[in-house]
Amino acid sequence: MRKLTAWLFLAPALILLAIFSFWPVAFGSLLAFTDYSLIRETHWVGLDNFRYIFDNEMFVTGLKNSLLFLLMVPFVQIGALSLAVLVNNQLPGIRYFRAAFYVPVVTTVSVVGIMWGFMFHEQGALNYVLRACHLVGAPVGWLSNDTLALFAIMFVTLWRGLGWYMVMYLAALQAVPADMQEAAILDGANRWQRFWKITVPMLRPTIMICSVLSVLAALKAYQEVDVLTQGGPMNSTFTGLYYAYDQGLKHLKLPRALAASFIVSLFCIGIALVCLRYLKPKHR
Amino acid sequence: MKTIAHYLLLCAIALVCVFPFWWTLVTALSTEGNIFAFPPTFWPKAPSLDNFIEVFRAIPMWSFFRNSVFIAACTVFWKLLLCSAAAYPLARMQFKGRKLIFGLILATLVLPSEVNFLVNFITVTKLSLVDTYAGVILPNVVNAVSILLLKQAFEEVPQDLIDAARVDGASEWIIFSKIMLPLIAPWLATVGILTAVEAWNEYIWPSIVMSKPDEFPLSVGVLYLRGTFGSSTRVIAAGTVLTILPTLAAFLFTQRFFMRGMDGAVK
């Protein structure tokens, strides 16, 4: 009887998960090997879609860019951990700073796109500041230059992500027992030693989780591309998933889109497995 | 001295985080001069609310707003109900397959959910939910993070309370709804607020499901503004300010819930 109750409680959530989380992965993986469309009969086409996308310059650039996005992970993680350390105190007004760092996280991506569009504009605030500081001579076309645009997008994802990870680290920092720190102070450990010998080992599980999440987020980035450059200039800012989004939604080539997302997923799962293996907390 | 340096560093970083918002606000409030004038203005010139009024004239702002509120409210309600119902047996009941179910729920965290919408659109079409709010809401009702947070919350409730209720002959449903849910109210609030902000900010999925402009939520509608009035940057800026105002207010007044949500996630 008790068993039946448990399943009744779980059923609605499981049904929705099955339909909207597991079915898309299973069915989507199958469709990647077909010529599915809503209007025609479906045929099995083997690896045709995969051959097509790997011959396609936009997807290959996209995949490279997705991997390039991984460069951001250490910046995001080290940045977020440093921020967390900076705000982990009781200084007057510190909660306003925490709030300020978190505000980009609660902003919808469409608005982020519009705001950073203003910022990156050739006559925008960023170029003004850089020119005022004599860091650049002429205005830089952040989003119109095909080498810079990708880095501009990466910066925006960093800007959006930092606060989220900061709060994760902050929570973990506050869970570090104060008496451990006090004991270390009595033993004459300085601030730096305490950070590396106590705080970092205690934070290991959080660092692991955040790094894996950050790696996955980097590989799967595409929304910022959509709202900032839509893949341009000259297709230089395509990412693996942006190609999937572009093909699936704008060109209605669903099987190609699914083949592309299949490849990106393989990368995600592979890298997640590697990370989990090597970053496993040792002391447990 | 050290404190001053600390504050200066904090201010510098805060400036980078907040400046785009400030500049957008300045752009929206100003009515005079070129937006991309050189040097740019960092303070509103001749501030007025004209651009904001223009937003309401240009697009059906009230409908967008109402749609967003409706979508967010429904998502929060159903998520709290279904995710807590799912979390309860995972936390407090012993049954066969519990580990497996839990593993499956965890697996959704690694799955590439970002592109689920490609197949979900087919599903929603087959279920004839295109152009309905049910189509927008249903895929977002259940997610692993919420179940994990609520499971955590249920695990912290003392076993004695449940045992006492069972001795009194209360059914599992009564225990769940009358005893457990009130006890985890702060966690429900946390999940609720996080969900409300997420639902409000959701942008790609609603733009796929909804095709009629006056049924759009704000996050989608605001880009529609860019399409129709491409030249009037100030009106677009005013539209973005109106779009983010509710989430920013919600966040600033309920900051501790956000921090708590993360607290639970770390455990």
UniProtKB/TrEMBL annotation, chain A:
Q: Where in the cell is it found?
A: Cell membrane
User: Which UniProt key words apply to this protein?
Assistant: Cell membrane, Membrane, Transmembrane, Transmembrane helix, Transport
Q: Which residues form the ABC transmembrane type-1 domain?
A: 63-275
Q: Where is the signal peptide?
A: none
Q: What is its main location?
A: membrane
Question: Which CDD domains does the protein's record reference?
Answer: TM_PBP2
Question: What SUPFAM superfamilies does the database record attribute to this sequence?
Answer: MalF N-terminal region-like, MetI-like
Q: Does the keyword RNA-binding apply?
A: no
* Entry superkingdom: Bacteria
Keyword match Cell membrane:
yes
Q: What protein family does this chain belong to?
A: Belongs to the binding-protein-dependent transport system permease family.
Name of the protein this chain belongs to: Sugar ABC transporter permease
Automatic annotation (TrEMBL), chain B:
Enumerate the Gene3D superfamilies for this protein. MetI-like
Q: Where does the record place a coiled coil?
A: none
Q: Does this UniProt record's set of keywords contain Hydrolase?
A: no
Segments crossing the lipid bilayer: 69-88, 100-122, 134-154, 175-197, 235-253
Key words of the record: Cell membrane, Membrane, Transmembrane, Transmembrane helix, Transport
Q: Where in the cell is it found?
A: Cell membrane
UniProt family annotation: Belongs to the binding-protein-dependent transport system permease family.
Question: What's the name of the protein?
Answer: Carbohydrate ABC transporter permease
Q: Which organism is it from?
A: Duganella dendranthematis
